[in-house]
# Entry
Amino acid sequence: SDSHFPVPNCPSEVDYSFHYPYFFPKDAPPAPKPKVRFADVGCGFGGMLVSLSPLFPDTLMIGMELRDKAFLLLLFLSLSLSLFINYAEYFISFTRSAHQVTEYVKDRIQGLRATNPGQYNNISVVRTNSMKYIPNYFEKGQLLKMFFLFPDPHFKEKNHRRRVVSVQLLDEYAYVMEVGGIIYTVTDVEELGDWMKSCLEKHPLFEAVGEEEIKKDPVVKLLTSATEEGQKVARNEGQTFMAIYRRVASKED
Ligand code: SAM
# Structure
């Protein structure tokens, strides 16, 4: 159930000064408030945010993560076992602080801020169900980038409605994205890759980003290397399937 976490009624109710205190100084003169521009949907342990942060130090980014510790502890233990040495650091902090993954990501960000003064001030995380509450967090046209990295595949046909990319949900994503903004999706499950691509292809407000632009985009190589799931796939030399689409204008924009 969603009763474990607070849900804002609308974007103006979210206190972003709590997430990004550096960007909301208390004694600042009245001025337009900075807004979150990138969202990593289903961010897991937050590896993408941590990699993106220094690339776009003035851009506010947020991870959205639903599941609690039970599922993620299993995921985490399997990651730890598969490469204990590299994950030992996560293991120690996770077992010490055995709580929700969003709390873990918050701690990870606080730790990075403390050990790298002046950095990682632009990333944060919320625990929420992105399939229900995206419009509660973002206004129309607010987001420049949205990430869907290694989302859960939900193989059975009756569970396809649980997929985080669908034609219906793309209506919501199109609403919160600025014209010209980019949706990045990647998976190691070919069938899900085809599904995400076909949903984006069918949607009138998205068009495929060209090969040349994809090659030049520094964010693209992070899709398969920055997240914990991406690293697992890379270690197993698994294939990945990307779909990268741009929000295009509608008559109303
Ligand atoms: N993106 C991360 C990565 O690449 O390492 C995590 C991938 S993991 C397979 C999928 C994540 O999506 C899980 O952490 C899960 O809890 C989260 N998730 C699934 N449905 C969600 C929803 N409706 N809202 C927010 N997060 C969700």
About this structure: The mean pLDDT is 89. The domain at 11-21+32-247 is CATH 3.40.50.150 (Rossmann fold). The chain has one domain: 11-21+32-247.
